[in-house]
Specification:
Elements (H helix, E strand, L loop, with lengths): L1 H36 L2 H24 L11 H17 L1
Keywords: Membrane, Transmembrane, Transmembrane helix
Pfam families: DUF4492
Protein name: DUF4492 domain-containing protein
């Protein structure tokens, strides 16, 4: 009885895995064909990617400088942050 249960269990799991795999592959192909046939969409996606690059890489260099020039660990970072908060609060 136990052997039959194990065989049925493996057959069902293998079937579910194949079905899930085929579903993921068919969804991937659907989106891939959609992106291949786009004309205006490609241009818009390119503009979006360029804007994201500018926002996260270029602007970060100018507006968010690295105050911790050396990587601090543990208590060093905590002390630095607390000192900066106190100094900035006192300046206001």
């Amino acid at each position: 009885m136990f052997v039959i249960y194990i065989k049925v269990f493996y057959i069902c799991n293998d079937y579910k895995f194949d079905l899930m795999k085929q579903t993921v592959i068919s969804i991937w192909r659907f989106y891939l064909e959609g992106f291949r046939s786009m004309t205006l969409g490609r241009t818009l996606w390119l503009i979006i990617l360029i804007k994201l690059f500018i926002m996260f890489f270029i602007l970060r260099l100018f507006f968010f400088p690295n105050y911790l020039n050396t990587p601090a660990v543990g208590a060093d970072k905590d002390d630095y942050v607390s000192r900066e908060l106190i100094i900035r609060a006192a300046d206001e």
